[in-house]
Write a structure and sequence with these properties.
The protein is of the alpha/beta class. Helices cover 24% and strands 21% of the residues. It folds into two domains: 159 residues, Rossmann fold, CATH 3.40.50; 163 residues, Dihydrodipicolinate Reductase, domain 2, CATH 3.30.360. The strands form two sheets. Strands 3-2-1-4-5-7-6 form a seven-stranded parallel sheet, with helices on one face. Strands 9-10-8-11-14-13-12 form a seven-stranded mixed sheet. The protein is globular. 43% of the residues are buried.
Length: 344
């Protein structure tokens, strides 16, 4: 097997997810970073923003400096609405380039729904059908057929991994579901102070967007596609005064003649060949501590004092499995690399 490296451009290299991408890819044995792009701090070294990055890498430049004929794969860690414009301008001209987008630009299959949700007119409507929404564990057979990879949101990743196998098997009710997700503040990006102005932001817990969180349309669409079920749920997100990590709690009603033990057995069976998914023993307490700075998702199925009610806990690192790590996992799948390469 050839050990040739792939040439990589990272657009939006200095944000939280961008820096995690650079850090992980700088140690990936099959990746060669040829471009690091941002809109500010041009000419600086990436180590100025993240002291973990020891490798000598190209200095930060604008996107206009990219020689696309030399790029194999581009990662986009840009605000919503930006990746679609760039990809639209080069998709047909540079046909060997593949794209992994960490924004929401290609997560929604309907352009009008994208506009309704993100208040932006989609600039690459014709390319949506050429993209794939890619939670890595669900797309291994298909991802190589696409050049545009839509990396999922962090909350939706923590929700879909435990729930989709159980909804598909009709083991739990698809209504009256409560999903409660608590995230480190890095999930809101570096412009956190502009989006949230509540008192004591960095030393308090904050609930928000319970009726119209922007990830709901993504969750709705994916459950309909993957399970043919319209999930009826409430979604309650919170910001925590910690930098990274997500703990999602899903409150569910069992179908007749099933049990928490059976749910755990089904998840074990479904993910037995997936090394990043860790199914814990029944009724195990769970926090985000074990998964920080890893690409793992830990899942615990727990009984409650009410016989037919259960809680499933799901923990991921929002910047790794919820963003940059899953993007690299998808890259590994595209290029037939070992799935965990660069992610151990």
């Amino acid at each position: 097997m050839s050990k040739k490296k792939i040439n990589i451009a990272i657009l939006g290299a200095t944000g939280y997810t961008g820096l995690d991408l650079v850090y992980l890819l700088s140690k990936h044995p099959r990746a060669k970073i040829v471009n690091l792009c941002a809109t500010k701090n041009l000419g600086k070294n990436i180590s100025f923003f993240d002291k973990r990055i020891k490798k000598k890498l190209p200095k930060i430049t604008s996107v206009s400096k990219i020689n696309w004929s030399e790029v194999n794969l581009a990662f986009f860690s840009l605000p919503n609405g930006e990746a679609q414009k760039i990809i639209n301008s080069i998709y047909y001209k540079y046909k060997k380039v593949k794209f992994i987008d960490l924004s929401a630009d290609f997560r929604i299959s309907n352009a009008s729904n994208y506009k309704k949700n993100y208040k932006k007119t989609h600039k690459a409507k014709n390319l949506i059908k050429h993209s794939i929404y890619a939670i890595s564990e669900f797309v291994k057979k298909y991802i190589k057929d696409y050049r545009i990879i839509a990396n999922p949101g962090c909350y939706p990743t923590s929700i879909q991994i435990p729930l989709i196998p159980l909804i598909k098997k009709r083991l739990v009710q698809n209504k009256n579901i409560t999903i409660d997700s608590k995230s480190g503040y890095s999930g809101a990006g570096k412009n956190l102070d502009k989006r949230f102005n509540h008192k004591n932001l960095y030393s308090s817990i904050f609930g928000y967007s319970t009726k119209h969180h922007r990830h709901m349309i993504e969750i709705d669409e994916q459950f309909k596609k993957k399970t043919n079920v319209i999930l009826k749920y409430t979604f309650n997100p919170y910001l925590l005064p910690t930098f990274r990590g997500i703990l999602t709690s899903m409150y569910l009603t069992l179908k007749p003649k099933t049990s928490a033990k059976k749910l755990r057995t089904e998840l074990m069976k479904y993910y037995k060949k997936n090394k990043f998914i860790k199914i814990l023993k029944l009724n195990t307490e769970l926090g985000s501590g074990n998964v920080l700075n890893t690409n793992n998702c830990e899942i615990s199925v727990c009984e409650t004092r009410i016989k037919n009610k259960i809680v499933i806990f799901s923990a991921i690192d929002n910047l790794v499995k919820g963003a940059s790590g899953q993007a690299i996992q998808n890259m590994n799948l595209i290029y037939n690399f070992p799935e965990s390469l660069g992610l151990k």
